[in-house]
Amino acid sequence: MIGGLHLETLHWRHLREWGHDLSATDAQLAATPLVGWAYRNDWGRLVALGGVRWEGVAADVPIAFMDATAVFRADPRSRRVHRLALTTFDAVMTVETAIYAWLDEDVPRAREWMERLGFAPQENGIWVYGAASTRGDRIRDRNGDAGREHDRAGQRGEGSRAPATA
């Protein structure tokens, strides 16, 4: 426990509790990589979660995410999340060459935080952390437009952190 916040290792049940759209079965989710953290308040309410989940047909595209209540974001203790995110990304970068994310413009200061974490925006709206993958995998844009895909190769943006980073 940290000052009324209880830290938990992220599990798929946290994402379901938060309201993430998970159409997979429990068995499919159990076989899909997920790493991260979740915070609960003293009343047991989930107030923040974040990490990396692998998506795609072969669960081979690492996607970073973070969700938090407005009350949690306004709390000075929420800054601890930055260190958790960097530690999580460090672990992921031991097995991946890049992590991908989308920016939620509705979240105050989200752009600033993404840049501080080391993500770099790409022309297609996807943000990339670390060196670009050379595997040629494809990821869909956030809108999921019918078949609109973007090649990951060569998408490292200036200002993104290189491997051995978050």
What would you note in describing this structure?
This protein is an alpha+beta fold. 23% of the residues lie in helices and 28% in strands. The strands form three sheets. The protein has a four-stranded antiparallel β-sheet with strand order 1-2-3-4, sandwiched between helices. A three-stranded antiparallel β-sheet has the order 5-7-6, with helices on one face. Strands 8-9 form a two-stranded antiparallel sheet.
| Largest sheet, spatial ordering of strands | 1-2-3-4
The coarse overall form would be globular
Strand content: 25-35%
Largest sheet: 4 strands, antiparallel
Secondary-structure element string: EHHEEEHHEHEEEE
Query: In percent, how helical is the residue content?
Result: 10-25%
Question: pLDDT under 50 segments (min length 5)?
Answer: 133-166
Number of helices: 5
Could you say which structural class the secondary elements and strand pairing correspond to? alpha+beta
Ends apart, CA distance between termini: 24 Å
Mean pLDDT level: 77
The count of strands amounts to: 9
Round the Cα radius of gyration to an integer and report it: 16 Å
Structure summarized in a few sentences:
With 166 residues, the chain is an alpha+beta fold. It has helices at 12-18, 26-30, 70-74, 80-92, 110-117; strands at residues 5-9, 34-41, 46-55, 61-68, 99-102, 120-121, 126-129, 138-140, 149-151. It is globular.
Task: Record keyword descriptors for this entry.
4-stranded antiparallel sheet, alpha+beta, 3-stranded antiparallel sheet, 166 residues, globular, 5 helices, disordered C terminus
